[in-house]
Every structure is written in C-alpha cells, then in structure tokens.
Amino acid sequence: MRADAAIVAPIGEASEKVRSNAPSARAGVGQSVRRREDARLLTGRGRFGDDLNLPGQAVAWVLRSPHAHAEIAAIDTAAAVAATGVVAVLTGADYLADGNRPMRHTPASQSPPDITLVNTDGSSMEVPDQMPLAGDRVRFVGEPVVLIVAETLAAAKDAAELVAIDYRPLPSVTVALGAAAADAPPLWARPSNVVVDAMVGNGVATDAAFAKAAYVARLDTHVQRVTGVPMEPRTALAEYDPETQRYTLYIGGGSVGRARRDVAHMLGVDDTRLRVVAYDVGGNYGTRNNTYPEFALVCWAALRFGRPVKYLCDRGEAFLTDFQARDLTVLAELALDADGNFLALRASNLSNLGAYAASFVPLTKGTELMTSIYRTPVARARARAVYSNMPSTAPYRSAGRPEVMFVIERLIDRAANEFGFDRVDLRRRNLIPEAALPYANPFGMTYDSGAYEAILDRTLALSDWAGFSARREETRHRGRCRGIGIGTYVESQSGAPNEEAVVTVRPEGTVEIGIGTLSTGQGHETSYAQLLADWLGVDNDCINLVTGDSDRTKFGAGSHSGRSIRLASITMHAASRQIIEKGLRIAAHLLETAEADIGFADGRFTVRGTDRAVDLFAAAAAAERDLRLPAELRGPLAGTGEFASRVSSFPHGWHVAEVEVDPETGLVELARYTAIDDVGRAVNPMIIHGQTHGGIAQGMGQALMERCVYDPESGQALTGSFMDYAMPRASDLPFFATDISEVPSTTHPLGFRGGGEGGITPALGVIVNAIVDALAEFGVTHIEMPASPEKVWRAMRAARPAGTIRC
User: Fold this and answer.
1) Which residues of 598-609 are buried (b: 16+ CB within 10 A; e: fewer)?
2) How far apart are CA 141 and CA 170, in angstroms?
3) Comparing C-alpha atoms, which of 441, 448, 447 is closest to residue 378?
4) Mind listing the pLDDT tens digit for each residue in 77-92?
5) Which terminal CB of the chain, N or C, has fewer other CB atoms within 10 Å?
C-alpha cells in the first residue's frame, strides 16, 4: 500500500480542487482575485501536520538539555525503558551505532549575486556538524539528548522524567560581544568563537572620505533576537517500507528538497530512497526552511521498530528550539559633506549564530545592502559571525535586510537632527536617480530598476505628510506625544537557483501544475492559476497546483528569498509555450491545415479568418487518444520549464509610520502606517497587500515588543511561552494605507519581483524613527528595540530628569 493512501486525514488529496471560493471565469495577471485556497483552510479542510496519522504509529518525544553548556558524563535509561507504554529510549550513541551520521550545516551564501565573505586572516570558516541527539556535550538549552518512543505522548513524557543524565555544567555565553571576546568560554575546539571575520568594500577610500567629512553621524545598536512563532509548531511523521526499502517523511516544513537531501545524508542512504511530503504549512517566515533533527530521528525510529513514528513539537519546545533570527550588533558611521551629500559609510556587523552555524545569509545579505538606495560613493564593513550558547539563527523574513535598513535609516535621522537638515530633503538629495540605474552600490551589488523618488513623492502624499503638524497638535491636546517616521529599503532576492515546473493539460478539462515551490500562506494556488489563465486562456478554477512532494518535483527548493513568483513565472511560462507549440501542431493535423495558418488565443487554436477551431482540451484529448497523430505528438499535452540562475531582483519602497506615546506610562501605539512597495509587476494586488500587512505586523512586533531573552549567567531562556514573549494583536495595529508600484525588473524576463518581504524590511527603522521624533522635545535621540513602555518611560525621564514629562 502506498504511504499516502494510509494517511488518516480530514480531507482528500492535497491537489483537491476547491470550487466554492475559486473564480468561476478567467482572471489573469493584475486582477485582485480572492484566494481560492481560503475556503478549504477556513472551513477545517486543511491538511496540517497534526492532521496526519498512520495506522499503528508510535509517538516520539525528545528529552532536551536543561543546560546552556555542559558535558554529558553518563545517561541512564533503564528506568525509562521499563516504564509502561515505552517502545524504546534512544541516545546519541545508539544513533551512531546504527550507522547514522550527524547533520551537516551549509551556512554560506558565497556565489553571485551575493558578496563573498573571506576571513581577513586567511583562516577557513569551520562549520561543525550537529548531532541530532547530543553525544558528549550540549551547547544550548533545549538541545536534543534522548529520544523516547512510546505508544502515547503521555507515556513518552512520563518516561522522560525517569531518564537520569549526569551533566557537568560549563561556563556559557549568550551575548555576541561577550562570545567574541578573547577570554570567552569556547564552544568548539578552535581558537575563537568567531567563525567569520571578513572586510568588504574599500577601506582606504572610505577612511579618506571620512577624513574630509564635514559631519559624521554615529549609531551603536543591537537588533534583538526574535523567533518566528508560526501558528503551527513543526511536525514530523515517518514510515519505512521494507519491500521498497524507502522512507516516507511528512513534514510541516518549507523545503522538501532540502529535507530529502539532508535527511538522506544523515541516514546514510541515497536520496532516491527518501520521499518527503509537505501539505499545508501553518506559517514559516524562513525559520522552517532548515532541516530539524527530529526529521531524521523519526525516520530512524520507523526503520528500527518497523512502524510509523510521529513527532509533534509543542509551543514550549518551539520557543526553545526553533531556529531564531536577527541578533545583530552594529557600530556604524555615515559621513556627509557640508551640503548633506553622503560621502561614505563604515560599519562593523556582528551576527550571533547560536551554537551551530545554520546560516551566514543574514550577515551576507545585510552587509551587502547597507547603503540602501542612497548614492554613497564608498563604504567599508567588517562582517563577523560568532558562536554562542543559544539556538541557531537562520534567515527570517527578508533575512538580514531589516537590520541594516534600520541602521541606515536611523543614521540618516540622526544626521538630520544633529546637523540641521530636513530629514525628507536629506533622503531625497542622496537618492540614486532613476537615470543612473542599473546602479552598482559600493559593495558591488547592482540594482536593476526603480523609481525611487517618484515612490517617495507618492508615499508622502498617501501618508498626508504635510498634514502631520495638525495631527500632532490634536494629539498634544489629548496629553500624548505624536511622532512621524519615514524610511526606504531595498532587498536582494535570489534564493536557490534551480526550479522546474511541469504543466499538463488533461482531456477532462483541467490543467495541472507540478512545481517545487511550497506555499506557506502566499496564495500560490490563486496567483499561479492567474498566470496560466493569461498564457493558456483557460478558466482559473480548472487549474490545480501540485506541490510539496519530492517524488513529484525535481528540485523542491520551497519558498524563500522572494523566489516563488519569480522562478515559478519563468518556468511555467516556458512550459506554457511548449504546450502551445505542440498544440498548434496537433491542431494543424486535426483541422487539416498548415500550422502557420493557425493562431492561438483564449484557449483555442483557430484557423485564421474562419470559425474552424479546436480548444486546448480537445487537443489534449487527441494527443492521448487519436492514433492518427504522428508518434511525436502523442502522449500527454505537457510542457516542462527549467531555470537555473541566481540573477537577483531588487524590490524597494517607502514607508511612513506615525505613533502616539503616553508620557505617563511610555506606551507606544502605532497610529498610522503607509507603505508603497515596488514588485515589478503585480500578479494579484490583493494578495500583495495582504503580504505587506503581515510584514508590517511582524516589523511592528520587533520594533515594540518581541525579544528572545536569555539569562546572561546561566544561558536559560526566559521567554519560553506567550506569557513571556509578546506578540502583536489585531488591536495593536491600525488600518494600513498601502499601494503598489510597478516598475518592471530588468533582470527578470517577465519583469517580476517578489512581494512578500517589503512590509517588514523598512518597518523597524520607520517605527523607531517615529518614536524618537515623538520624544525629540525631551532630548531623546535613540531608542533600542523593542521600544517597550518601560524602556520609553525610562528614556524620557533620563533625558529630562528634573523636568515635567508632558507633551
């Protein structure tokens, strides 16, 4: 029996058509079609990790380290093994004894278009492997140590209480600057916890520019660590088929291709022996794109015990063990001449990797874009990454870019305030002019296209920047302080370079798309159908999307770095052209006329100047059933599009935020938010607006409330639940004013850029700029994130210790 046939789930196949909310007619690129997947997801017919169960499955539970850093002297599992309902209690020694391997990390983004980070001392960037179950040492609180497999989750948890582990605590370090110090407790057998120490840009020219600067603005800041907190905690369910000697792994994850590659390596098998499936995924934001230890553990256990094994992460575990994000320490300076022209930027960026080097991508992508869309002649940046006793950081929505956009936008506001410039005029003066595009920034990143000043003007108008003074005065009458902030951004979208789409026209009147991207809320079922509706001239509701199955896709690279619509559009367009070309030849035979005399439009092949025609589905039926056709035209009417390129596109935009601050409590409320983002071409404007809204909410969360807190002495996580980790709610957010700019990307054959990350990328800097503007009259010049009420309250009173705090 096929593994997926054994699934006990509340719905049918993942490719099930949902007609109740789908558009009934044709709706192509540029139309705000309602999301066809929402009917299924909102009426309980989704297929998430906890919906998937297999007959006879056992349950896995992971016993995790209570220490941030410790040696493991001994593990006694005897009492746990004897407990009721326990199948087995397994350790790292058992894992290795069965011939399994550690998990590899491949953190580097070292190929164009991204810059290359090379250690200045010539040393290699040593990246240790990670044991799915720790062996002789643990390096963060929550690291897996023992796997308990039982008949029920309750039995597994009870048995975990009976495992005796002799830990010998070691000194730990969680703060990046402390971990980088020469006397820091070492995590690995290497001279330093610093694994990356690279210098990029032109140091000599930058120093020379600073030497002649009239003004220098400085910022010493820390962009705090956060976690993704997706709605659905991660899951893993595996079974092993002894007849085919194949594993099937069901994950609530973001990249079936990466999971197959990584888990196959850990199991020591060829990746053809592993099928990875992901159905609906309840949120991702990048933190679920990586492989997690439990993926391999349930496969190993399924083989060992001859039965399916399921793991379901609870929310407390997720706070401890999900890949986390941000955590960048920055010291930056901006040099200006007497007229306010930018001369140079120099910075030191220190990325806190956590215990394992899961990714250098946030450090790389952030560093290379530090000058944003401003004309800055020269720049120099030191880029470092350091190990610490914390969970690993990984790319998280717009990896690395929100941090550095925060830095440059705060620097510009500080320069304006300290040296007497108007903050909008200062930005406008230094924008890259449209005529200068494509434009190479001082780190070597070449921006493709844009209308930077035009979008600025549109954003100022949409936000009613000119009317702010009146709103501030009205707020003052209510006893509150009001501030406004502005900022721009640019991001580099590349991601995994390979993608394949297989488009098949079925005689029964459907079109199937098989592709390696995986939606985690982006609306692929809707927007992909809009593309094919345009190109093949068929109705949207006849188009089905098949994704998230490594047996069905060649690459399965998932969705990250804005790659989905960019690469899907290219591959699907190529596949569509193949279908039309083959269909023309079929139609020529069926209509008994020359191929050159036939045109294709609105899903029909028509003899020009006549009403004689064959529609697309009739051509598909003939291809499969009409034996009169030549052999080369028989078979499914399908096309395959492949693409392999890391040529990037550079989405950009402008945002404006207004805040109100209660001087009595320090509470900050986001009062207004305006955003215009350029996406090249908008496939579905409504979906793009929704993605922007979500990104703004995430940015607001980091700016005002979110933070992973660890005790500096013990390394213990102090934010282990929603009681400790604050998240924005609907009541915390205003209605947003958003719009879209469409300047086609010159690096994409169809002009598309990604639209899912623009909301969050500038939000940190824009919101903090607004807060500082609200508090400027008290002498406050900077607020570190998150700008909690206590932090704002203290800043106001520190700036005016003897005065009355009143707006």
Assistant:
1) bebeebbbbbee
2) 13
3) 441
4) 999 999 999 999 999 9
5) N
